[in-house]
Amino acid sequence: MASVDTSVPSLDKAWRINYDDLEFNSEIGSGGFGKVYRGEYLGTPVAIKKIQILPDDPNRVDLEKFLNREIETIKLFSHPNVIQFVGLSEKNGILFIVTELVEGGDLQYYLKNKSIELSWFLRASIAHDVSLAMAYLHNQSIVHRDLKSTNLLVDRNWKIKVCDFGFARIVDEENNKSMTICGTDNWMSPEMITGKDYDEKSDVFSFGIVLLEIITRVKPQPYMRGADFGLSEDIVRNQLIPEDCPASLVKLTFDCCRVDPAQRPSFKEIASILKNIKISL
Q: Domains of the chain, with CATH numbers?
């Protein structure tokens, strides 16, 4: 019988953080699971998500499922455009998820604040960062299922970090297509909205909606979609897209938002296209 090498720490212990080693500062956000604070862990700036699910919460089972999924998913990742997991802490039944601190807030803030100038090169760079993260995730067989501008964090150097993996799911030959409807309506793919089977190409459609946000700086609304839940050509092209937008960005947006998932590009292809668009700007 092989002996266990006790000199190597277990993964569970490696992620465990002593609560007393955390320092809480200002609140920087909130969501369905709880509040997020700027803080420090042994002197290193971090974000601390405080999670408290009440025993009598009618959605407790679902919330715990999504929470566990987020924790188990983000443990797996190491990519410059994906939020970095630091560890977990617990005190008095309250869970604390600790991640790297991304100072800038979410992308939607910058898109809706028209006083912030965003060149086409910067917009293409933002989209490229997201595509690199998503190519990495899909290569790991992970479908995000809730890709949107509020789940994209911006650091001080305009590097984008994909976050919020509560809806993320492994998709492979054993776990393919038959998944529940989840996400946020205005970013959802047609197949998800209509309750059909879907796969990683659903993320590509959501990315196309994010790309439309980046181009127009307008939050997605139902009127932008047609009867088939694809983009409305007339409204988007004639009413929303700025005249000086590079044609290649417009084409990529519509390619990502094709109603037929099989006709959408992969994120590897998207990343390559955006790299070339950046070179041309």
A: 11-100 (3.30.200.20), 107-280 (1.10.510.10)
